[in-house]
Design a protein that fits this description.
- The chain is an all-alpha fold.
- 72% of the residues lie in helices and 0% in strands.
- The chain has eight helices and no strands.
- Helix 2 packs across helix 5.
- The longest helix is centred in the N-terminal third of the chain and has 29 residues.
């Protein structure tokens, strides 16, 4: 791999960090029955894995999470800091460190749109929600079943985000990696 190619991938990783930050600026959609809104930031994490693959997608995500840990208010709602990462919703954010690796690995071959969507849904929605539920149960002293059930309300919205990310990647990947 040439140094120019590496530089292009690093620039794309930086661009994805910026996209993840901008997605955090979009207001969450309140559900009314629970205090946690549907956010768009996790779609950026899915895009990182889809567009950049496991290595550079994780680099973008690790960079983003490190910036949040350092106190930059880049999470939805302007949240940041180590307390956010170890708090009740920290498991979702920490799962983001692995999501691009798994999505990028699953979709690294030229796959059909539907296989891309299935991989994105499995790792970007199901895996992240399960990891987040385990952490939520641990931190909030909830029954694991209750924590898992509380995520069911997010599955339709997250599925739409996985579908959108897959559509975007399906259209952009050939242009980015020509």
């Amino acid at each position: 791999m040439t140094s120019r190619n590496n530089l292009e991938k690093l620039i794309l990783a930086a661009l994805l960090v910026a996209i993840i930050i901008v997605l955090g600026l979009l207001p969450g959609i309140p559900l009314g029955i629970i205090p946690v809104p549907i956010i768009f930031q996790n779609m950026g994490i899915m895009l990182a894995g889809l567009l950049l693959g496991p290595r550079y997608g994780s680099l973008a995500t690790v960079t983003f999470v490190l910036l949040v840990a350092l106190g930059f208010p880049f999470l939805s709602g302007g949240n940041s800091g180590m307390a956010t990462l170890v708090g009740p919703t920290g498991g979702y954010i920490l799962s983001w460190l692995l999501v691009p690796i798994f999505i990028g690995w699953f979709t690294r071959q030229k796959t059909s749109f539907w296989l891309t969507f299935i991989g994105t849904w499995l790792w970007g929605v199901l895996f992240a929600d399960i990891c987040g539920s385990f952490w939520l149960a641990y931190q909030s002293h909830l029954n694991l079943g209750v924590a898992l059930a509380s995520n069911l309300i997010f599955i339709p919205g997250d599925t739409i985000k996985a579908l959108l990310a897959s559509l975007i990647a399906h259209k952009l990947k050939p242009v980015i990696w020509r």
